[in-house]
Amino acid sequence: MPDRRVRAVLPPLLRAPLGGTAVLAALVVGVLGILYAGDSGPAPVDARIWAAVEDAGPRWRHAARAVDFLGEPLGAAVLVAVVVAGCLSLRRPRAAALVAAGPAAAVATTTLLKPLVGRTIHGEHLSYPSGHTAFLTALALVTALLVTGRLAPGRPAGTVLVLAPALLAGATMGWAQVLLGAHYPTDVLGGGCTALAVVPVTAWLVDRTADRAVDRTAEPVRQERG
């Protein structure tokens, strides 16, 4: 059996609600991908949202660029490195592995989906789903999972504590992407849902892999004692 002193990155109480969230999010990603496959223009809902934000002043656009930087390679690498360093300083290598793997898996999934969906913006740029939005949503979700795991609240409170920061981070990055004209609003919805679908699965895989490693390490000791 795995060492129960090692805290799972996907708390057992949250597996069911986050698993359900992952399934629902995957359905949203799939439905939107089918609806907008091959499109090169905004949907009616995209056009309405764009019209609502197009008159934003310079200060809002500066703020949007700052948020956008967090999803660029350098900004993303710095964010992940800081959180990984924090996990390692607390002697939580399993958590550090999830911080590295969760956002990476979410972004990789958006990269694979973009040519499959084939939706473009500004003529040639593949846009669905948004990788920037997937990254920040995933990082916030991973961080919230780790914090909530230490607090050990009940299932309803824990679900809220995990999902609320992820939704807020996704909405913030999505707002920046729409304001800057980098993505359609439906692209950012797809990006956020991609993270919600991928991260719980990644966390489960990290736990399963780490538990197996613990079992392999403990097996020789059990044989010697036997």
Report helical residue fraction.
Answer: over 70%
Report how far apart the termini are.
Answer: 15 Å
Based on DSSP secondary structure assignment, what is the total number of beta strands? Answer: 2
Number of H- or I-type helical stretches: 8
| pLDDT averaged over residues | 92
Order of helices and strands: HHHHHEEHHH
The geometry reads as: globular
Radius of gyration: 19 Å
How are the strands ordered across the major sheet? 1-2
Q: Which class do the helix and strand fractions yield?
A: mainly alpha
Q: How do the helices and strands line up, and which of them pair or pack?
A:
Elements: H1 15-35, H2 44-53, H3 58-69, H4 73-89, H5 93-117, E1 120-121, E2 125-126, H6 131-151, H7 155-179, H8 185-225
Antiparallel strand pairs: 1-2
